[in-house]
Amino acid sequence: MVMRHKTPRLTLLGAGPGDPDLITRKGWKALQMADVVLYDALVHPDLIAEIPTCVRKIYVGKRSGSHCATQTEINQLIVEAAHQYGHVVRLKGGDPFVFGRGMEEIEFARAHGIQQIEVIPGISSAIAGPAAAGIPVTSRGLSNSFWVLTATTLDGAFAADMEKAAQSDATVVLLMGMRKIQAIAELFVQFRGAETPIAIIQNATLDNQRTTIAQLGNIASRLHEVDIHAPGIVVIGEVVRVGEHFASASVLNHNLSH
């Protein structure tokens, strides 16, 4: 039997914020057509279970302080798998172009002979996480713009725009900042005041989602309520007050239905 050579191909795919049902229809189809799937730690196991058994599935998860594979190794795996098997789907949590290092993987793939490359966007946790907690990133009369920042840069310092964001009136959404909550609050309170609301959302869109709402001035005393070693989304701004009303209404509706 003559084996047909498959053209190396890469699809960069966002899995969405957590709930496996929130992947796009186009993204789900790509998983069904893949030869190899390289997936991250934040991808839900139920989504992996829906990938056909004939597809090779390789875990390349990275969590704070624990990497199954380095970015360099992941880049190399993408190229090797594409040249050996054909269609590689690189499956990432959220959206691959929001702090997902997606462009680095594309550039490496192109430099190593992979020309067929497609990006399928995912729902970013930066917007969907707050939404799942009833917090709009913009709301008429409260905020007409928002920042999305990472709290963890290569050198360990705050992002250069962090202070600018703190000085603005915009909603601020911070990713990869759980271990720096206290330092973040101390910076923002200088410009926005101690009574400014802050929300921490963990396991967003999942059944075990947890939202902690406090103020910049007292968040340090509430950190025992969250897991600072697990991923989380931090939201700062007046829109968080909308989330407080949403949570109260949800509890009321739950009690009325039981």
TrEMBL record:
InterPro entries reported in the protein's UniProt record: 4pyrrol_Mease, 4pyrrol_Methylase_sf, 4pyrrole_Mease_sub1, 4pyrrole_Mease_sub2, CobA/CysG_C, Siro_Cobalamin_biosynth
EC nos: 2.1.1.107
Keywords for this protein: Methyltransferase, Porphyrin biosynthesis, S-adenosyl-L-methionine, Transferase
Gene Ontology MF term list: uroporphyrin-III C-methyltransferase activity
Domain of life: Bacteria
CDD domains linked to this entry: SUMT (cd11642)
Associated pathway: Porphyrin-containing compound metabolism; siroheme biosynthesis; precorrin-2 from uroporphyrinogen III: step 1/1
A GO BP annotation: methylation
Keyword set includes Signal: no
Pfam families: TP_methylase
Domain Tetrapyrrole methylase intervals: 9-219
Gene3D superfamilies: Cobalt-precorrin-4 Transmethylase, Domain 1, Methyltransferase, Cobalt-precorrin-4 Transmethylase, Domain 2
Family to which this protein belongs: Belongs to the precorrin methyltransferase family.
Protein name per the record: uroporphyrinogen-III C-methyltransferase
Organism per entry: Haliscomenobacter hydrossis (strain ATCC 27775 / DSM 1100 / LMG 10767 / O)
